Amino acid sequence: MKIGIVCYPTYGGSGVVATELGKALAKKGHKVHFITYKEPVRLDGFHENIFYHEVSGLDYPLFQNPPYESALASKIVDVVKFERLDLLHVHYAIPHASAALMAQNILKEQGIFIPFITTLHGTDITLVGRDASFQPVVEYSMNHSDGITAVSESLKRDTLLFFEVKKHIEVIPNFIDFSRFKKTDKDHFKKAIAPQGEKILIHVSNFRKVKRVEDVVQMFDLLIKKIPAKLLLVGDGPERMSIEMLCRNLGNCEHVRFLGKQEAVEDLLAIADLFVLPSESESFGLAALEAMACEVPVISSNAGGIAEVNIQGETGFMSNVGDYEDMAKNALYILEDAERLLQFKQNALAQAKRFDLDIILPRYERYYDQVCGSSGWMEYNI
Ligand code: GMT
What we know:
By secondary structure, the chain is of the alpha/beta class.
């Protein structure tokens, strides 16, 4: 198939999933065309089946904000026509679903029919999308998508709660590529971070408010009063400064390392004993799944779809949002007993295997066939 993928090219989860999906589809022989405003961060190296089309709009003095959605729709029209795409797959509803719909309508008038699938990732529904400033457009473009997928049952429920969606929503969870995310021996690195054999906790996020990174620091502060430990904070974002201030106020800076944005997260996960994800809202928690694939148990909140990934008392523990005392208690329970920690690590890996790329990718392919077949648009496109 010739598939157009529209996504955010940044470090965010939706862009990562879209890029990894595109790469995997390309490996299986599909021609994949990425349509984004910048080359996606995970789109490294050359592949004969991968193509990249940059969206660039005019920066005209009249525009306070350049109208990206129009530029994107125009680019989609151009790529679909020139490359004769069979299907568009847009990740993150805002503004990708409405841009795809606009492009579809323009192309229809020219006798070209292109179905599009919208994949909902999380904040496009739970936080931003349901806001009155976007809600009608998101609802309309979902209802006019030829297919909709959500990354968890929880996100599907939220979508049906906040929007009047008349279409079926197919749940296809996030996936993990075990050729990249697996436990490797990084002992020299472990010794550098934790020279006295301290336990290593890790948090990876975009440091947005919704991630509640302050709870990571608070739970860690309680934990180090009981056992020696180090905390790695990976990523960057708007909350970074206030988190640094919190560490200073708590006086635990010497045990906390801010590592900023890191490309090879798997190397850091390789030395970690616990992953911490206390999010206020989380549709799936891809970062937690990546940790589990590297045999790292998870201490998390029970928000959104996290429960579909982290199994209570088996792969880690979940607490109510904001209850960092309970998170510290659970972390101590796992870490204080070596055998128990090993069992949790093994369970984490076993659970991650359920989300193996080799299992999830065919589900997308089947859904593509189903949507293209049932839209009746495939025949127009040949
Ligand atoms: O919040 C992020 O980390 C980025 C955000 C996005 O849409 O770019 O991630 C969302 O999509 C990921 C991939 O499907 C999910 O694993 C994350 O749980 C989800 N984030 C939230 O719901 C807050």
